[in-house]
Every structure is written in C-alpha cells, then in structure tokens.
Specification:
Distance between the termini: 39 Å
Strand content: 25-35%
Number of helices: 3
Mean pLDDT: 77
C-alpha cells in the first residue's frame, strides 16, 4: 500500500533509519539517529525500498524510534 511520507515520520531507507525533518520539491532533509543530517533525493525515496516506522508505530501504539536517539546517546557516553 502506498502512503505519503510526512514531516516527522521515522523511515528506513536502504537499511538506515532516519527522521524526516524537511520535505522539499527535489529532496528531503533527514536526521540520522547517530546525529548526522542528510539530504535524500526524492527519486531515491521512490526507487528504493522505504519502510515508514512512524505509521507502524501509530498503528501499534509504540514508537521505539523516539527512544533510539536517547539510547544511542547513552551508549556513546554523551548523555
């Protein structure tokens, strides 16, 4: 089933989990949970396998991605 990606969604793109922070005409700005911001061309989101974790969390009532950033900071000693 095809559903649009929305601002704030947590998605897996080619095995990398990111949060959508800006949606533009040609690309989306995303934030990886290791602290890196990236630009992903919209064509890549259309051509590659994308799993929207936010929509899954909305359906299940649990959002592990929300806490992943805090866990990674703790593990890396930055909390």
């Amino acid at each position: 089933m095809e559903r649009p990606i929305k601002l704030g969604d947590i998605v897996d793109v080619e095995g990398v989990r990111v949060k959508i922070t800006h949606i533009g005409g040609r690309c989306c700005q995303v934030h990886r949970f290791d602290g890196i911001d990236m630009l992903i061309p919209n064509s890549r989101l259309l051509d590659k396998s994308v799993t929207n974790r936010k929509q899954q969390a909305d359906q299940s009532g649990v959002c592990i991605g929300r806490y992943l950033y805090i866990i990674l900071k703790f593990v890396n000693g930055r909390l």
